[in-house]
Amino acid sequence: MGAVVGTLTMQTKQRRRPSRDKIDDELEMTMVCHRPEGLEQLEAQTNFTKRELQILYRGFKNECPSGVVDEETFKHIYAQFFPHGDASTYAHYLFNAFDTTNNGSIKFEEFVMGLSTLLRGTMREKLEWTFHLYDINNDGYINREEMTEIVRAIYDMMGKYTYPALKGDVPKQHVDAFFQKMDKNKAGVVTLEEFIVACQEDEMMMRSMQLFENVM
Amino acid sequence: MAAGVATWMPFARAAAVGWLPLAQKTMPKPPVDKKSRSDEILFVNVSGLRFQTWKNTLDRYPDTLLGSSEKEFFYNEETQEYFFDRDPEMFRHILNFFRTGKLHYPRHECIQAFEEELAFYGIIPEIIGDCCMEEYRDRKKENQERLAEDTEAENAGDAPLPPDATLRERLWRAFENPHTSTMALVFYYVTGFFIAVSVIANVVETVPCRPIKGSIKDLPCGEKFSVAFSCLDTACVLIFSFEYLMRLYAAPSRCDFARSVMSVIDVVAILPFYIGLVMPENEEVSGAFVTLRVFRVFRIFKFSRHSQGLRILGCTLQACASELGFLLFSLTMAVIIFATVMFYAEKGTKGTTFSSIPASFWYTIVTMTTLGYGDMVPDSIAGKIFGSICSLSGVLVIALPVPVIVSNFARIYHQNQRADKMRAQQKVRQARIRMAKKGATNAFLQHKEDGGLQDGDSDSTPLCVKNRSAFEHQHHHLLHCLEKTTNHEFTDEVTYSEVCVTDSVGFRTSRSTSLSSQQGATTTCCSRRAKRRAFRLANSTVSVSRGSVQELDTLHITKTPAGTQYPQSRSSLNARTEDLKLNCADYTAAIISIPTPPANTPDESLPNSPAIPGILRNSRSSTYNTQETVKISSL
């Protein structure tokens, strides 16, 4: 019976310790609440009108009352658009592309600036943004590994059930085709200038870029 | 799809810019947004209480009343507002659902009133958030039980049997539900009576009766009236055996019945008699035989068929088994400890009753349960000291677990109920998520089949595409872009496994069979489904996956509330239209994918594939709409 009492007391001791840490964590979480800069400033920095910014912010604030998006929420949102496959890897790279300050969360300003570049920016700006998306380690070059990662992530979004079925190393073939097109000097990496030049030569891509103009 | 996701749609489409350099084909044209996208504030008047909200907020859920064009029916031109003659208090919750995406259940409201409001506004109750779901379900169950109490007793087991029920089924019904027929009731009471008689006879036959003339010793009645008692016993056993055999015959699953508790009790009740018949009149064996008669008392457990209370008690004990086990274990530990101590303490005393440790067990138990018979008493001082410690600790050891068992019983009981509820809810939730995912996939595949992805002039849009919201248009365009980027197409599970099979079997043979089966395609959807089943028998390996999808479909159908009609079904989750379209889409997608072989023989397949989609599209479009669009989609 003494043993029973002994084990009971030991258990209560163990449970008391983590609760104090939890309180601190909770306090910290409620403090993180971000407010964006004023509407005029954002209007000046981006290519959106005031009304569009208002609509965007209302939606953003509704989804993320704390004012920032963390990676998990981001992945969750993206996964809802692509229920067939696994969108988490691509969402991760996308998150890094939007998170210009690299602090693990996207504020409304970063979000809106990214959107402004993608939707209302010049062709060069869009291509630069895409280059930064592909350049995972931000060293100014896209090498084969980075490209393979990105392409694999995109194919992951398709999921398993595709037609024709994904046989063999389809991503690798895709990457080879890409490098053939982009890497003019066969250096094994693609620089920003090579990328922009190659894209501008590609009629098909230019036409596709035009299509995404009026998404708002 | 969740509401808030609509907010992120522009972002997802913008992010698609990242796919463009990789795309091997041109991107499709984005859907044209016909109406102006400026946001405005709407006024909603609910029985005099005015609410205002952004139009966008309501548009988040296009398959509800407020989110669809159905609200135009309630628009009041003079006052420029939407007027609803409904409960304004409830409307608050409905509107909060649109705003926050979570539906909460107001605890002070009547559950039926709440459900009626939800049904009016086109919101399905499954959307209720986790915080309120348990309360909602509990209240709903309570309500249903309350209403069903009167009707249940008549309906639940007493639904009339189908007229062609076999004798076995009828017998089983009679045994399980004695209220169904008078014969069953009579049988029920007769067996009850005989159980009572048998138990009373067992008790009475040990009572001492007045001795027969010429003898002084008191005889137990059993021996005095041995003939009478043995006749009674035989009669009871015969009836019990007859009942058991009848039950065994009528049981739908004899193995399960034989293993059930009640049947074991029945067998144990009648076995001693038969063993007695079989055994010879031997001196040594008859001693054991007498012991066997003790088992006759188990006949009293047969009453549990007649008494609900006994069954509940049995369930309780079963549920509390671990707690009872703990009590027993701790008692045993204490008994052993104290018995040992008492034995060694009393060892020195002369003529002590504590002759061995097992003998001391009796003393310890009697002391710990505070019975204190006094047949064994310690004499030495050490013994008395330890004896008092024993009695004190006995009170503690026994008094502690008992309230714990009592409260544990309540907790375990509720927990079991909740665990079952959660499991059922989980299954439903998983199924719902799967269906939503499939719905999204199949909506897109359906969209493809409807020719919604035409790159040419979009003037002649098929009728069934009209009901799609702007959000769905954009989402489908996004998925189409992804297809073009990767140069692969989305299909569903069924088609994918079919393609795998045909690839392994050799697509030429399957193509010829599919061609031949297609020439005679008729116009109705159901006959096509039947054809698909026939086709499937040829490729029998994939029938299992279809079966599981069918199950999900039927599960889905049963969840459809009675009110929604087939063509006007708003809610995407209980869409019967979608379900039927799902089958057709699978079918048409299946047929289209099989004849087109991979890239090596494109020429060969070209003449064939227009014919097949052509036949199918013509037939389907004549059922659904008046448009005839022939399109080669997969090449």
From TrEMBL, chain A:
- Any one GO MF annotation of this record: transmembrane transporter binding
Say which family it is in: Belongs to the recoverin family.
Q: Which GO terms describe its biological process?
A: regulation of potassium ion transmembrane transport
> Which terms are listed as keywords in the entry?
Calcium, Cell membrane, Ion channel, Ion transport, Membrane, Metal-binding, Potassium, Potassium channel, Potassium transport, Repeat, Transport, Voltage-gated channel
GO CC annotation: voltage-gated potassium channel complex
Q: Name the segments for region: Disordered.
A: 1-20
What SMART domains does its record include? Answer: EFh
**To which species is this protein native?**
Hucho hucho
UniProt key word Calcium: yes
Per UniProt, subcellular location reads as:
Cell membrane
What Gene3D superfamilies is this protein classified in?
Answer: EF-hand (1.10.238.10)
Reply yes or no: does the keyword Cell membrane apply: yes
Residue ranges of domain EF-hand in the record: 86-121, 122-157, 170-205
Q: What is any Pfam family matched here? A: EF-hand_8
Indicate what this protein is called per its UniProt record.
Kv channel interacting protein 1 b
Automatic annotation (TrEMBL), chain B:
Q: Subcellular localization, per the record? A: Membrane
**Which GO terms are recorded in the biological process aspect for this UniProt protein?**
action potential; protein homooligomerization
First-listed, main subcellular location of the protein, grouped into a coarse class:
membrane
Query: Region entry Disordered: which residue ranges?
Result: 143-164, 595-635
The record's listing under Gene3D superfamilies reads: 1.10.287.70, Potassium Channel Kv1.1, Chain A, Voltage-gated potassium channels. Chain C
Q: Which terms in the Gene Ontology molecular function aspect does this entry carry?
A: A-type (transient outward) potassium channel activity
GO CC terms, sorted? dendritic spine; neuronal cell body; postsynaptic membrane; voltage-gated potassium channel complex
Query: Ranges for the BTB domain?
Result: 40-139
Q: Which SMART domains match?
A: BTB
Compositionally biased residues, Polar residues: 618-635
The signal sequence is 1-16
Protein's membrane topology: Multi-pass membrane protein
Q: Where are the transmembrane segments?
A: 183-204, 224-245, 257-279, 324-345, 351-373, 385-406
Q: Which UniProt keywords apply?
A: Ion channel, Ion transport, Membrane, Potassium, Potassium channel, Potassium transport, Signal, Transmembrane, Transmembrane helix, Transport, Voltage-gated channel
InterPro entries xref list: BTB/POZ_dom, Ion_trans_dom, K_chnl_volt-dep_Kv, K_chnl_volt-dep_Kv4, K_chnl_volt-dep_Kv4.1, K_chnl_volt-dep_Kv4_C, Shal-type_N, SKP1/BTB/POZ_sf
Q: How does it assemble?
A: Component of heteromultimeric potassium channels. Identified in potassium channel complexes containing KCND1, KCND2, KCND3, KCNIP1, KCNIP2, KCNIP3, KCNIP4, DPP6 and DPP10.
Question: Can you tell me which family this protein belongs to?
Answer: Belongs to the potassium channel family. D (Shal) (TC 1.A.1.2) subfamily. Kv4.1/KCND1 sub-subfamily.
Q: What is this protein called?
A: A-type voltage-gated potassium channel KCND1
**Natural source organism:** Hucho hucho (huchen)
